[in-house]
Amino acid sequence: MLETPFTQKHIALGAKMAEFAGYNMPISYSGINDEHLAVRKNAGIFDVSHMGEFIIKGPHASDLIQRVSSNDASKLKAGQVQYTCFTNDNGGIIDDFLLYCLEEGNEYMLVVNAANIEKDWKWISDHNTNQADMQDISGKTALLAVQGPKAAEILQPLTETDIMNLKYYTFVKCTFAGVSNVLISTTGYTGAGGVEIYFENNGNDAEKIWNEIFRTGESKGLKPAGLAARDTLRLEMGFCLYGNDLDDTTTPLEAGLGWITKFSKDFTAKEILQKQKAEGVGRKLIGFELADRGIPRHGYEICDAEGNTIGVVTSGTQAPSLNKAIGLGYVPPAFAAIDTPLFIKVRDKMLNAKVVKLPFA
Question: In which residue ranges of the chain is CATH 3.30.1360.120 found?
Fold first, then answer.
């Protein structure tokens, strides 16, 4: 298994470790609920150095990005971030990713899901007909997500750059904890506020940054958090997880991501998705909550009142902040309206559920 620059830190802290996307990653430390609530109330730190980062630059960079991504990158100014996705020739989602505008029209950073690095790189390369400059910097880039209402307050003493007043989905480059050329962005996957910190791992930079964050943060309730809490946090917000709620067969329109699908420009599968928008989707991603006791899991059947299978659960959990069972899943549009009754098949039982508005939190 691969290691991140922080793997030995996690092990020393007693984290429960497991393989994820080829990396030895922390699943939990003090427990999912404890870490989850620490992020919601104070702050938590996640090692997400397994994520992939690509640089695309040069005079043809923006043309390439516009061709392969669903959102409109021409709207981005330097210092702004955009959520978008790659669509395949059938309109399915190859991956969802963050697009950072480093230099308007000329240089961008793409942050992709760890399990899709190779697939994404090939897809972009296959469409790079004008030979934009592409660099895969995943292996040398460390990434920490400090999430929660106290995140900026904890980190501000470590840099002279103002990060307390950064707007959502923007970023700055600065010296942080004595390390130069650090990129700090107001992005994250928890819905609790906070930032993500990117830097090239040179020498003991990773250890220095980790230790300094805990030096300023421990007294403010900062806790290390693992991938399990990251999953419950994102699910409470209704954020999609690639491989669960999104994949090569789900389209952005089915997944409720029409807002990142811009038909004002040409991109892969534009015509297919335009047709789907005009004719209507055959299924929709919905949020639901259980009325009966039980926990919905990925792959469980969603049924109607007659017991007919009408869909499938893509994500589900017992939400720590809400004290109820919640989930996401795909159903026909006729069953997608708020308050529509559903049944989740858990082993041999049919549990009562209903469609609810997202986010859950």
Answer: 7-48+139-236
pLDDT above 70: residue 261: yes
Q: Which two tokens stand for residue 347?
A: 């082993």
Query: Please, what is the average pLDDT of the chain?
Result: 97
- Token readout for 216 is 């300023």
Which of 149, 289, 297 has the alpha carbon at shortest distance from 231?
A: 297
Q: Are the C-beta atoms of residues 166 and 172 closer than 8 Å to each other? A: yes
Are the CB atoms for 235 and 315 separated by under 8 Å?
Answer: yes
Q: What is the DSSP string of 213-280?
A: HHHHHGGGTEEE--HHHHHHHHHHTT---BTTTB-TT--TTTTT-GGG--TTS--TTHHHHHHHHHH-
- φ, ψ at 226 (rounded to 5°): -105, -175
Alpha carbons 249 and 88: distance in angstroms, whole number: 9
Q: Does domain 282-356 have CATH number 2.40.30.110?
A: yes
With tokens 């399915």, the residue in question is 92
Residue with tokens 């090939």: 122
User: Helix H segments across 99-197?
Assistant: 117-126, 151-155
pTM for this one? 0.97
Q: Using pLDDT thresholds of 50, 70 and 90, give the confidence band for residue 348.
A: confident
Residue 41 one-letter amino acid: K
What CATH code would you report for 7-48+139-236? 3.30.1360.120
Q: Which two tokens stand for residue 86?
A: 């790659």
Amino acid identity, position 238: G
Q: Express each pLDDT in 33-46 by its tens digit.
A: 999 999 999 999 99
pLDDT of 278 reads 98
φ, ψ at 290 (rounded to 5°):
-85, 140
Mode of pairing for the β-strands spanning 43-47 and 222-224: parallel
Mean pLDDT in residue range 206-231: 97
Please state the rounded mean pLDDT for residues 268-297: 97
Task: Write out the residue limits of the CATH 2.40.30.110 domain(s) in the chain.
Answer: 282-356
